UniProtKB/TrEMBL annotation:
InterPro entries: Aminotransferase_I/II_large, Asp_trans, NHTrfase_class1_PyrdxlP-BS, PyrdxlP-dep_Trfase, PyrdxlP-dep_Trfase_major, PyrdxlP-dep_Trfase_small. SUPFAM superfamilies: PLP-dependent transferases. Its cofactor is pyridoxal 5'-phosphate. Homodimer. The gene is Piso0_002091. Pfam families: Aminotran_1_2 (PF00155). This is Aspartate aminotransferase. One of its GO terms (molecular function) is L-aspartate:2-oxoglutarate aminotransferase activity. It catalyses: L-aspartate + 2-oxoglutarate = oxaloacetate + L-glutamate. Belongs to the class-I pyridoxal-phosphate-dependent aminotransferase family. It comes from Pichia sorbitophila (strain ATCC MYA-4447 / BCRC 22081 / CBS 7064 / NBRC 10061 / NRRL Y-12695).
């Protein structure tokens, strides 16, 4: 008998199944709006100019391939914390930071710290949400409590539901929140809502756990997108910030992430740092270097930093233009039944279209359009060549598939 006899198949991964179907589809006009990655006007992976220039600098430096410190490359940690939190807080030494294996690694490290080292196990997650939160929290030993984040009728944040969940949460509960470009809804809290929410969170003594995977893609401005973080800092709140450079620098395969834990004073930051070191040592020992070195090079070089700013502005502008075209085709060209204004009001990569599972399935099975069954559309997968075709197919399923 095999030692693995007791293993059972896990729940199917819907996203991987869709990606498999996509790879097997030989139709030359297939449309991929499934993956949460940025693509250029030709549907190709986009290499930021800032990254290309930073690669040249690193190549000339003839770096070695030695291990890095367990907590990460110091220059990267400082650069990442400054980008996320601002220079003032970093200088006050109230931040414990650890380099991680992408944003997913940051979320897992933060959940492990809170659940296994602080004994805070109740994680509140607004739905719909990034699916990976749920197994990630479970593996870290936490308990997930769900509440409704999105009002599908009004196509806006269900703020009443969020406040009700907060009101019922016991002290030291953790609230997982997305900084901007909410995945999958594209629908973010307003500054007024953030201000109300953070004040109530401080009053209730719960822990904000902020996922910043898309910082810079909402407005094209890193600092503007970080407004909720500055709001919490201004209120002297303790919180966790999970940072990723997969989207903002296009470093998907390099797994460049960081966990920042903002504490009340430098002594608390020291002990949190030691706990992060202990956890990361047992799981990974050392994080990848190349992407982190690119990130710190860009942050430290004024010319590259300015180029990065231009790159982000360009990405944000293109996403906005694609949304306008989709709205035009659905409302003016095809006069598709329904209200499609939410394609304009939502932000970032994702448009939570409102298509039913049956309509999404029809697009996948019959019309060579690939998207998650919840109707989330990555607008970066659309371009001048395929946007009108895509909208025509949306119009078809809305009229013919219920």
């Amino acid at each position: 008998m095999s030692v693995f006899e007791g293993l059972q198949y896990q729940e199917p991964d819907e996203f991987n199944d869709i990606r498999k179907k996509l790879s097997q589809d030989s139709n030359g006009r297939k449309i991929d709006v499934s993956a949460g990655v940025y693509r250029d006007e030709n549907g190709k992976p986009y290499l930021l100019k800032a990254i290309s220039q930073a690669e040249d600098i690193l190549h000339d430096a003839k770096r070695d391939h030695d291990y890095n410190f367990c907590l990460g490359i110091p220059e990267f940690l400082n650069a990442a914390a400054t980008i996320a939190l601002g220079e003032k807080l970093v200088k006050e030494k109230k931040v414990a930071s650890c380099q991680t294996i992408g944003g997913t690694g940051a979320c897992h490290l933060g959940a492990t710290l809170l659940s296994n080292f602080c004994n805070f196990r109740k994680f509140y997650i607004g739905t719909p949400a990034w699916p990976n939160y749920f197994p990630l929290i479970k593996q870290a030993g936490g308990e997930v409590i769900k509440y409704n984040y999105y009002d599908s009728e009004k196509k806006e944040v269900d703020f009443t539901s969020i406040l009700n969940a907060l009101e019922s949460a016991p002290k030291n509960s953790i609230f997982i929140l997305q900084l901007c470009c909410h995945n999958p809804t594209g629908t973010d809290l307003s500054q007024e809502q953030w201000n109300i929410l953070t004040s109530k969170m401080k009053q209730k003594e719960v822990v904000p756990f902020v996922d910043g995977a898309y910082q810079g893609l909402a407005s094209g401005d890193l600092e503007k997108d970080a407004w909720p973080i500055q709001n919490m800092i201004s209120k002297d709140m303790e919180f966790l910030f999970c940072q990723s450079f997969s989207k903002s620098l296009g470093l998907y395969g390099e797994r460049v992430g960081c966990l920042h834990v903002v504490t009340s004073d430098s002594k608390k930051a020291e002990i949190v740092t030691d706990s992060l070191r202990f956890i990361f040592r047992s799981e990974c020992s050392s994080a990848p270097a190349f992407g982190a070195l690119l990130t710190s090079s860009i942050s430290q070089n004024p010319e590259l930093r300015e180029q990065w700013k231009e790159d982000l502005e360009g990405i944000s502008h293109r996403l906005s233009q694609v949304r306008k075209k989709v709205h035009y085709f659905l409302t003016e060209r095809y006069k598709t039944p329904g209200n499609w204004d939410h394609v304009l009001t939502q932000k970032g990569l994702f448009w939570f279209s409102g298509l039913t599972r049956e309509q999404s399935k029809a697009l996948i099975d019959n019309l060579h359009v690939y998207l998650p069954l919840n109707g989330r559309v990555n607008v970066a997968g659309l371009n001048k060549k395929n946007t009108e075709d895509f909208c025509a197919l949306i119009d078809y399923v809305v009229r013919n598939v219920k």
